[in-house]
Amino acid sequence: MTYRIRDLGDLKARVRAFVEERDWDQFHSPKNLAMALAVESAELVEIFQWLTEAESAVLDGKRRARAEAELADILIYLVRIADRLDVDLLAAASGKLEDNARKYPADRVRGLARKYDEYD
Amino acid sequence: MTYRIRDLGDLKARVRAFVEERDWDQFHSPKNLAMALAVESAELVEIFQWLTEAESAVLDGKRRARAEAELADILIYLVRIADRLDVDLLAAASGKLEDNARKYPADRVRGLARKYDEYD
Amino acid sequence: MTYRIRDLGDLKARVRAFVEERDWDQFHSPKNLAMALAVESAELVEIFQWLTEAESAVLDGKRRARAEAELADILIYLVRIADRLDVDLLAAASGKLEDNARKYPADRVRGLARKYDEYD
Amino acid sequence: MTYRIRDLGDLKARVRAFVEERDWDQFHSPKNLAMALAVESAELVEIFQWLTEAESAVLDGKRRARAEAELADILIYLVRIADRLDVDLLAAASGKLEDNARKYPADRVRGLARKYDEYD
Questions:
Q1: In 3D, which of B30, B40, C48 has the Cα closest to residue A38?
Q2: Which of B38, B52, B53 sits opposite D38 (nearest CB)?
Q3: C77 has a pLDDT exceeding 60
Q4: pTM of the entire structure?
Q5: Subunits close to B (at least 3 CB pairs below 8 A)
Q6: A81 with A74: CB under 8 angstroms?
Q7: Who's near D80: CB < 8 A, 6+ residues apart?
Q8: Could you tell me if the ipTM is greater than 0.85?
Q9: Cβ-defined contact of B5 to A45 (cutoff 8 Å)
Q10: What is the C-alpha separation between A82 and A89, in angstroms, rounded?
Q11: FRET pair for D48, CA 20 to 30 Å: which of A55, B46, B113, C11?
């Protein structure tokens, strides 16, 4: 029977339980968790490395399933490392979106993908 | 005044709005988004590359703030690429944790960090 | 006056000297060096993340200079970690190209970019 | 019979031949090659993610062989992307080491691993 995880707080608790049952916390220094998260993000990149951008937007069933698995892995490690560093992910994302809105005002950057200090 | 993002669905909507205001969707092929997510995860790794595991668990204020910013960036891109690929992140994570529980039964792997096919 | 590095053996010696002068070997565990190399490879990815494949093949002077700097950083860390792990890079590459020639026989894979176990 | 690759120029020629025999150049935009290199560097990181720094310095035969294979893959993609971008790797590395010597004068940074703008 599948238990459906309701929100990020629920996921955090489930990941903690998973790690504790296996006595794996000893391996979960933030340093190690950052490495693990980077490894999963590269596994996501690997799915797309030889595809064109257009092909990447219409994945076949097999590739979509692989992508879904990697996105899950990334989220799990992200929640785990946020837990270890005592970071509130949604609050951090709120703040970052506000910073980005200031750095990239819509009227200046519309349609252009340069980094913020490359604009006239 | 800060708008506090309530949950992943809310974050997805906020990121969509941010992208649409700037007409940046044209750059957001899953291929490109996977690259961007990998870049942010490496920026997180960079914080820890010369620290010991022990040091990584007691970050000073400046490093903790950097880590928080990178975790936010990773979450934002993760939500964006899940949106583009029509992946339900929490459902995917639920499934993955169940798969991992099967691959790594607690009684077999307790205290050991090897990959599942390296166990006796 | 610029000293021009002649070959990989020369580069290895120069990097060793650089590290020793600064007493930085203490930070150069293979674990840390692998992280540093991954960080540099992501800085290379970052140059291309919003560019199309076609744009990536005709970089302007500024981007080309950035790419050159990141390729240099990657090579420096690659040589350093090979030194720490006592790996002969050119011998390893020779062996890998031979393995790849066996896994991907030209008559079977010509023009197709799938991974070797995805071919009929 | 093993052909031993003599130097980076020889490796560049061998990789070109390998790619041309398979008509794979069409997939080798610098954008794609940067992604592939990042994927290989993450496969190297994966070997070390749960090891301590001390353990990473004394790899068993199996892990050392995996590391050697990943270092080979990284070098192959590095040489390939340098070829595509017309970058002289050894010249670039020479220049970078000189820049780094200026940014990190030995008498100021000996024994300390901070980034250059973090020093007093």
A1: B40
A2: B38
A3: yes
A4: 0.95
A5: A, C, D
A6: no
A7: D12, D15, D19, D28, D33
A8: yes
A9: no
A10: 7
A11: C11
